[in-house]
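Subject: complex prediction, re-run

Hi both,

The earlier run crashed halfway through, so I resubmitted it with identical inputs.
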Amino acid sequence: MNKDLNKTEIQVNREGELAIITLNGPETRNALDAQARIALLANVHSVMRESRVRAVILTGAAGHFCAGSDVSQATHNTIQRGRRHLTEFGDIARELLGGCKPVVSAVEGIAYEAGLSLAVACDLVVTARDARFCPVLARTDLVPDTAALWTLVRKVGSARARQLLALAREFDGQEALELGVASHLTEPGNTLEMAKDIALRMATKSPMAVAMTKAALTFRCATFGDSLQAEVDYQPLLGCSVEPHPKVQASSTWRDSQSLGAQA
Amino acid sequence: MSNQNNASVIVRNQDATAIVALNNAKCGNLFSEQMQFELTCILQQLMHEDAVRVIVLTGIGDDFCAGDDLAHVAQLIDPILLRDKAQARARLARVIWTGSKPVIAAVEGCAIGTGMALTALSDIAIGARNAVFSCTHLDTGLVPDAGLLWTLPQKIGAGKARQLMLTGEHIYGEEACRLGLLNTVCEPGKALECALDEAQRLARLPPVTLMLLKGALVNAMNSVDAAVRHEVDLNPLARTTHDHKEAVMAFMEKRKPQFRGE
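This time it finished cleanly. Structure:
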């Protein structure tokens, strides 16, 4: 297939234990049309299922993260097409949030609309100081999509989420960090490097425990009672799944000899 | 605090406050199964003792709780036993989170793993500036437990909770307070003293209403309908108490109310 310069392609690079998914469509600032959406969903699914991948990074090419959905086709929208489009975006967010590997987004430049939603659906968000976030949908008479109603409220709190969504105000990386939209802040051009560092650290954790923690936080925490049941269901599976983690063995000799700092 | 008692958890009463302390100072109050059992029993009992209005949870020695005692964990492979173990932990979380009396954590030093979970489970948490918190659960191949999957996102937001759970990074008193895990940060060595001051303030509130409120907060945040339903169900009950009438009278007579928990 020839590359259409106006279309965003989804690229996946594997670097050791990391899979780096790049939204690549400089002409539209990596906006996602139907084809790109389906490709992104397929790629997120597939890296989540690769056993040698231990952490995933989501980023954009050419100095931007993602300008949202590609609205050049929006005039032909029907209700049915709209439902499909939203379901696909929702499925991507679901997989990023509840899928089995930790995901870090590296945000440079524009993260508008679905771009913002995709960024905050990741476990951690590394932003450039001058990145520009905006839940722009309110300006186009639409409600927020790609699970932003769920993720934003839970990341920044209900009051601030209401304000951001209602005003569709743009905010920069610094403010994203203060609001809780982003978890890490760095200088422009450095987000991917920082995201890799963080992802590599998370890649050392027990894959099963990571998978279950993400699933529990996403699907099993609707109430306090739910979350306790999730512990009771998951913990015994982890306890008898694999050989004891090295730390477990180390700690049996720890008690009489080492200082408390060792446990931390 | 120091003592000669060798029980895993010890209790002492001070006015209307019960101070419950994890008691294995030489191991940083490493959380053993025995400690979990004793703590659960003691808290269950205190939740029903009329003389006790507030519970302060702390650790003997320099640390609050340095994590789980993993010494015997590797030997356990029977899934039924492991499930019982997980149930016991969930019971402890339920006793604190859904119990009828406010629990205040007084945190010095390490609050690692279960130490962090106990901090997050408490209604109010007070910690020293140099107290250190970390979710080390993934490093032992386990998911965060003792209610942490619920309490941490509720207290500090979903984004930060994921970050701390997935990275295991350390945070200190000031940062924990800024995030909302701690309500108050104090100088090292002062956590228990600050917690006891706070306990005195809570002890002056009407106990029945406090109990209804704590119960309501378990599920009221699930939806706006749940929140309103709790108000509608509980306030008429609270209005029938002696303490409500006493509060109204005291307000009219410009004096301090005397609540007796009826």
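The longest strand of chain A covers residues 9-15.

- K.
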